[in-house]
């Protein structure tokens, strides 16, 4: 059994003074020789013991035993996570097969529908042809009768010309003239009535481009993330060291953002009232304008598209790459961004008045007059988080670890409640005035924009660590919404009047 190289290289003599180690400083966790003890580093309140005392029963010491336990726990935890991810991978493989079957079924359904359309059009063609064919055949039969009649009259007139006396000819001419005139008049009438117009049939095919424009795919792929039930084994003595809020505090104190882009929503339709913003999975930007009944979508090349809506959009949550859930009065609409179609609308009672909306654990959490209500993806009510609000306003929420965080711009405060409606903490700082928009890193850091303080601040999920990370900046006056994209490490901020900024996390 060979010792690790790092252990083999451990010296028993001091490399600075070439003296044998005699003492061990617990404060600095390093051995000391006689000369080292003369250094001011180890004087004063340092806990220094004899090196023999320090090494005695070291392999049975709490720190060594704790190290062994930690490594054992780590292996157990990693094995558990590997098993969890492996099971997830197996489930994904099964879901892939199901998705492939769904795609094939969609194709078969479309093929069946196209076959039926082809059959219907072929039947219509046969019916059209038969109708016109019968009309022409009847017309030909009628003309053949007329032809026979005229031929007979012509033959009789020729015989009269050759064999009849002049008196017989005189007496017979009027009758034949009358009959000939009748046939001539009838024929002219048929011509004037367009009975002899040329008939043709053809197919006017449906525009293939129109089909392509409206049928852009068989469907869309959706990824759902569900909170895992994993729990790692950690000794109580180490739990405090692993608290996320401690790590978050250090990150917040040193956090820096750099402005990488700024622009303004351009439109001549009237004054904007931008209430929400979001960064789409592909990096595109999305904004809701309540005053002008529309959304504005910007791609990564800054090309914008205006999406008109038949309602006043308030705030929205991004469902996937191509759809969002957006609130309006007492309704929640699911809007498809590519086609601008409203896929679903969930109606609620007249007493409801919706503000902000987020997606948490695959459910919608919507602000209403009495707090926040949770509904599933089919609009079925799950739970009401009752919070006493003084009046209706847009209290942007964030959920993390079964807690709901929200801002109140009237009181310039942030609040944290559990899902039973119990207040855990409230926060206020003079640097943050009229907080209006709230987002998070989906973990333990909240980002909030100040409507009047013209800034963006970060706050830890325990409400203890606060830092102003952007601003004050006059261009951020009337900031109404903020959204953090974890994947891109970008922060999007928009003002009520349509000025928007993208900041990158350094």
From TrEMBL:
<dbReference type="InterPro" id="IPR047153">
    <property type="entry name" value="TRIM45/56/19-like"/>
</dbReference>
<dbReference type="InterPro" id="IPR011042">
    <property type="entry name" value="6-blade_b-propeller_TolB-like"/>
</dbReference>
<protein>
    <recommendedName>
        <fullName>B box-type domain-containing protein</fullName>
    </recommendedName>
</protein>
């Amino acid at each position: 059994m060979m010792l690790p190289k790092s252990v083999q290289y451990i010296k028993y003599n001091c490399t600075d003074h070439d003296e044998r180690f005699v003492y061990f400083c617990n404060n600095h966790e390093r051995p000391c020789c006689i000369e080292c003890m003369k250094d001011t580093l180890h004087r004063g309140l340092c806990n220094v013991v004899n090196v023999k005392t320090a090494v005695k029963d070291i392999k049975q010491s709490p720190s060594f035993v704790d190290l062994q336990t930690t490594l054992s726990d780590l292996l157990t935890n990693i094995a558990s996570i590997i098993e969890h991810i492996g099971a997830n991978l197996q489930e994904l493989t099964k879901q892939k097969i199901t998705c492939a079957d769904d795609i094939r079924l969609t194709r078969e359904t479309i093929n069946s529908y196209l076959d039926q359309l082809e059959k219907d059009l072929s039947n219509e063609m046969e019916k059209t042809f038969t109708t016109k064919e019968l009309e022409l055949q009847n017309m030909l039969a009628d003309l053949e009768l007329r032809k026979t009649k005229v031929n007979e009259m012509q033959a009789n007139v020729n015989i009269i010309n050759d064999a009849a006396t002049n008196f017989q000819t005189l007496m017979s001419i009027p009758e034949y003239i009358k009959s000939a005139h009748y046939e001539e008049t009838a024929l002219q009438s048929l011509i004037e009535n367009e009975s002899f117009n040329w008939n043709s049939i053809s197919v006017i095919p449906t525009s293939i481009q129109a089909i392509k424009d409206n049928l852009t795919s068989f469907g869309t792929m959706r990824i759902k993330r569900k909170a895992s039930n994993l729990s790692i084994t950690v000794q109580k003595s180490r739990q405090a060291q692993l608290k996320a809020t401690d790590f978050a505090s250090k990150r917040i104190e040193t956090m820096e953002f750099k402005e990488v882009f700024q622009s303004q929503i351009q439109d001549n339709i009237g004054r904007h009232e931008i209430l929400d913003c979001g960064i789409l999975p592909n990096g595109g930007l999305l904004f809701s304008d309540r005053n002008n009944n529309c959304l504005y979508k910007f791609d990564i090349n800054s090309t914008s598209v205006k999406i008109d809506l038949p309602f006043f959009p308030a705030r929205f949550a991004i469902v996937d790459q191509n759809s969002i859930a957006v609130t309006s009065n007492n309704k929640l609409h699911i809007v498809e961004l590519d086609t601008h179609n409203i896929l679903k609308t969930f109606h609620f009672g007249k007493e409801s008045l919706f503000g902000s909306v987020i997606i948490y654990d695959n459910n919608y959490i919507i602000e209403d007059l009495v707090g926040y209500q949770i509904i599933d993806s089919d609009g079925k009510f799950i739970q009401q988080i009752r919070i006493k609000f003084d009046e209706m306003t847009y209290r942007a929420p964030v959920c993390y670890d079964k807690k709901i965080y929200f801002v109140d711009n009237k009181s310039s405060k942030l609040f944290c409640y559990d899902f039973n409606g119990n207040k855990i903490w409230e926060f206020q700082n003079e640097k943050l005035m009229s907080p209006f928009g709230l987002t998070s890193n989906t973990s333990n850091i909240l980002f909030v924009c100040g409507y009047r303080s013209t800034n963006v601040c970060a706050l830890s999920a325990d409400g203890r660590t606060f830092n102003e990370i952007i601003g004050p900046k006059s261009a951020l006056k009337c900031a109404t919404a903020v959204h953090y994209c974890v994947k891109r490490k970008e922060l999007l901020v928009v003002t009520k009047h349509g000025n928007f900024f993208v900041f990158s996390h350094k």
